[in-house]
Amino acid sequence: MHVAMRELLARASRQHSVITDDMMQSFGLGISQRKLLVRDGLLERLLDGSYRFAGTPLHERARCVAACARPSRLIICGPTAGRLWGLRRMGNDGIVHVIAPPASNPTVEPWLRPYRTSMLAPDDIVVRDDGITLTSPARTAVDLARHLKGSDLRSVIDQLIHERQTTEEAMRAVAETLSTPGRPWARRFLVALAQLPNTGVAESHWESRVVAELISRGVPLEPQRWLDVPHWGSIRLDGCVEWMRWGVEVDVYPEHFTEEGVTNDAGRDLACDAIGWCVSRVTGLALRRSFDGSIDALVRVYRRRLDDFERRPAS
User: Fold this and answer.
1) Rounded to the nearest 10 degrees, what angle do helices 291-311 and 205-216 cross at?
2) Which end of the chain has fewer CB atoms < 10 Å from its terminal CB, N or C?
3) Based on the number of CB atoms within 10 Å of its own CB, is 147 exposed (0-12), middle (13-18) or buried (19 or more)?
């Protein structure tokens, strides 16, 4: 019994302190012994057939393990899968979102929200070593169109491509399969995918929002432009209007605000100015304080530069 418990504890530690009836049975613990552990308060029920050790943290991943175990065998999806994949803009709603078989009623627990469908291909499912089964990055992205508004959805798509968790082609294939009259969110995802620039994707949520908003306001911005600067090297602008030599930089990462970072950015902007390029910077702090005000300021810079170019005599 003691040997079995030690082995069971070692297994449970890899599954966020969650054990199942199947696990206990495989380690030689019969039904009466399992009931005894629950009666004595050593185990607490999460779902039918799934338990956690009393006193251990009841975090989201523990609940995910319970949802994926028998007899439920649910698939983690939506914002919960997004959090597991490390995606931004997910928030923390306290809900474990899952895919369940059609016409099933897996649980009445308030923290678990099932979406019933049979539209789930083998490539849409990923099984982790910690007992969690979840949707693939591509399927997760498409499902998130149920939950995210335009700019947040675009930001997630940018992140997945930038981090190489999936590809534009893989996401499109999933969305096209799911795009039926009863799933307008899949169609919205395809529209968002079609709006991706062919020059690259944003590296941060704020960059994605700024570029998309400037384009929506009529600024012909080209995202992710590489520029060779003499005596400096190759640099990447978050966005630019090449013909007027105007670049936009969205500074949200901490290294931009260190003494070294500020000095580096100033030197880079000076090198750009020497070849006729104007670089406008906006910080994450400014965007959080007033997103619309920051965009208004960038649009004014663009229009002023546009006026300057239109007044220049033809050469």
Assistant:
1) 50
2) C
3) middle
pTM: 0.70
Per the listing, tokens 């498409």 go with: 142
Q: Considering the domain delimited by 205-311, tell me its CATH architecture.
A: 3-Layer(aba) Sandwich (3.40)
Phi, psi angle pair for 275, to nearest 5°: -110, 20
DSSP conformation class of 118: S
Question: pLDDT per position in the chain (315 positions), as tens?
Answer: 455 667 777 777 888 888 888 888 877 777 887 788 888 888 888 888 888 888 787 889 999 999 998 776 799 999 999 999 999 989 889 999 999 988 787 777 899 999 999 899 999 999 999 999 999 999 999 999 999 988 889 889 989 988 899 998 999 999 999 988 889 999 999 988 887 766 566 667 888 889 889 998 999 998 888 888 988 888 889 999 999 999 999 998 777 788 888 898 999 999 999 999 999 999 988 998 999 999 999 999 999 999 888 877 765
205-311 shares the fold of 1-57 = no
Tokens of 229: 């600067």
For residue 239, what are its two tokens? 């966005």
Amino acid type, 193: L
Domain 1-57 -> CATH class: mainly alpha
The domain segmentation of the chain, as residue ranges, is 1-57, 59-196, 205-311
For residue 281, count other CB atoms closer than 10 A to its CB.
Answer: 15
Q: What is the residue whose two structure tokens read 């039926």?
A: 180
H/E segment holding residue 104: none
